[in-house]
User: Fold this.
Amino acid sequence: MLKRWRKLIVTVIAAPLVLSAAPAGAQQNVRIGVIAEFSGPFADYGNQILNGMKTYLKLHGDTFAGRKVEIITRDTTGPSPEIAKRLAQELITRDHVDILAGFGLTPNALAVAPIDAQAKKPMVIMNAATSIITTRSPYIVRVSHTLPQDTQPIAQWAAKNGIKRAYTLVADYGPGVDAEGAFVKAFKAAGGEVIDSVRSPMQNTDFAAYLQRIKDSKPEAVFVFLPPGSETIAFMKGYEERGLGQAGIKLIGTGDLTDDGMLDAMGDPTIGLITAFHYSAAHDSPENKAFIKAYTEVNGTKYRPNFMACAGYDGMAAIAEALRKTGGSVDPDKFLAALKGMKLMSPRGPIMIDPQTRDIVQTVYIRKVERVDGHLYNVEFDKYPDVKDPAK
Ligand code: PHB
Assistant:
């Protein structure tokens, strides 16, 4: 009896809330709440993601299955789980968004995931690359990459190309820990030896002590993951100043180290660096040419489009395609069903959303930094097709 009353009360209280939260009529805009880093040291992350989303809308229009999409941006100001959480709550309860998107940094994505699981909103990760993120809500889909996915190919490539003793240096948080684990596992399995591993604080810009230790232990190569920005610029400067290259220590990494958006700022010391990654501005395809042209028309020349811009573009493409498939419905279960197994031709090459893990399956390219027409680019020369996140 008590149970029945309780049920009735809950229904009565919940009903008006549900009514006001649910958009009525097919003509209502689809609201996408983009939570990302738009200011502070990681401001490029949010801006590249948003610029990529806008590029898709410029090329394909903003209305899909009769529903116009509306982007609402919110700034986490950096790696700020508490702010990210509050922004997600506000976007869901006050702004009534249908979809969450963005997320450059892992701590922000992880903070929002439990709120997302409860609110049941499709959540499209456009960068954050720690493997576990997609396991934290059944409504999360990732269109970017995972660190193990980009790391395993460079470990295998290095071992195959004569490197037998390596050292690892990673940023001490989710993606760095994932990269270290994936490198050690794949490099050992391919016959290599990891002589030591070190982790630097996430926002570190003084690598002198780490570089000296690495130099003293004389590995054949050092594998590096750092989040692109002042960290990668400082690391590259230190590597050059301490003469690790002259000492014969090769530098290898995931393409985060030679981010297209940072390459020209890092300059000539990057020439010859070999990395593995899923996107290069130099990728030779009609889709990438059209993407770069439209990106520049929409956003100007402040940024060269990078992997985050590409994931913003692809995330918007996936949302558009899901809307077409559901006939404009944003019912979370229908929307997720439309995303699972989705195949798209991205500026980076063919991509697919794994229906089991909701993570991306894609080609990982091996690239070398070269000067092309006066600018530095990651020039692709080998590839591993259909790579899944090996950590799952
Ligand atoms: C992350 O925080 O998950 C992250 C940030 C920058 C990257 C990759 C991953 O380049």
